[in-house]
Design brief:
It contains 10 helices and 7 strands. It is an alpha+beta fold. The chain has 2 domains: about 120 residues, Arc Repressor Mutant, subunit A (Orthogonal Bundle); about 60 residues, Orthogonal Bundle (Arc Repressor Mutant, subunit A), CATH 1.10.10.10. The strands form 3 sheets. It has a 3-stranded antiparallel beta sheet. A two-stranded antiparallel ribbon has the order 1-2. A hairpin with a 2-residue loop joins strand 6 and strand 7. The longest helix has about 35 residues. The chain is globular, with a radius of gyration of 22 Å. The termini are far apart. About 20% of the residues are buried.
């Protein structure tokens, strides 16, 4: 086998290595040009989540023929993975100092040659991936009969906030449509800024679900437009 044959197989090997690392935690949206985390990613530690996201960026050339950045600035990573800058920057510095990731012009990325090291980092160094620590058995407490119903109700109350919050966000988003926010075209970034302005901090990957739902229901339309030298979707109210 000639050396040039080994080079020809480089892309195939890289695609396989990327898929092995991210398949459980990442989904691509080529239309929106965004990367979405699966529910399984919620169990990742911060360092592991950053690595998975940076590896996922390297997968764009295999997903779409359009030009999508395969590196990111810290504030972009912060928006996508939902980790505050004060926590994120030390993680980036540590990974860079250990040559797990690289940086050029303030943008961070991973090199294909380091994918095997990243896989080892995730499987060994970050045992939080698919390997939660076993919980110690708890001593079962005896609940007096008269307080059993009250305790059951308290447990139900603890489960309500997440559903209530999700419902409130849908109502809030619908009010924006009715109130004319989308009378002028708005991008994904515009919608995220509106959420932030109202004190709701959402990662960008959580926002397309509201936009696409409104499009499918016929409340919004969308067209591709140029923004910061990139092609993105712009949403506006139906005429």
């Amino acid at each position: 086998m000639a050396l040039k044959d080994l080079i020809a197989e480089k892309a195939v090997l890289a695609e396989g290595a990327i898929e092995e690392i991210i398949s459980d935690y990442i989904r691509y949206d080529p239309e929106e040009k965004v990367i979405a985390f699966t529910p399984a990613a919620s169990g990742l530690q911060n360092k592991a989540k950053v690595l998975v996201y940076l590896v996922a960026l390297q997968g764009w050339p295999f997903v779409t023929k359009e030009t999508v950045p395969i590196d990111a600035k810290p504030h972009e990573i912060e928006e996508q993975v939902g980790i505050q800058g004060g926590t994120l920057r030390p993680i980036l510095k540590e990974l860079k100092d250990r040559h797990i990731i690289a940086e050029r012009g303030g943008r961070y990325f991973v090199r294909p040659i380091t994918l095997s090291a990243i896989r080892l980092e995730l499987n060994v160094g970050e045992k939080s991936i698919a390997r939660p620590k076993p919980r110690r058995a708890r001593t079962k407490k005896t609940i007096p009969p008269e307080s059993a119903a009250e305790t059951s109700e308290e447990k139900r109350d603890l489960r309500r906030p997440s559903n209530k919050k999700a419902g409130n966000l849908v109502v809030r988003f619908d009010k924006w449509i009715d109130g004319g926010f989308f009378d002028e075209p708005k991008t994904l970034a515009d919608v995220q800024r509106r959420f932030h302005k109202e004190g709701v901090i959402l990662p960008r990957t959580s926002i397309p679900q509201y936009l696409l739902k409104a499009v499918r229901e016929g409340r919004l339309t969308r067209e591709e437009t140029d923004a910061n030298n990139k092609r993105v979707w712009a949403y506006r109210s139906q005429d």
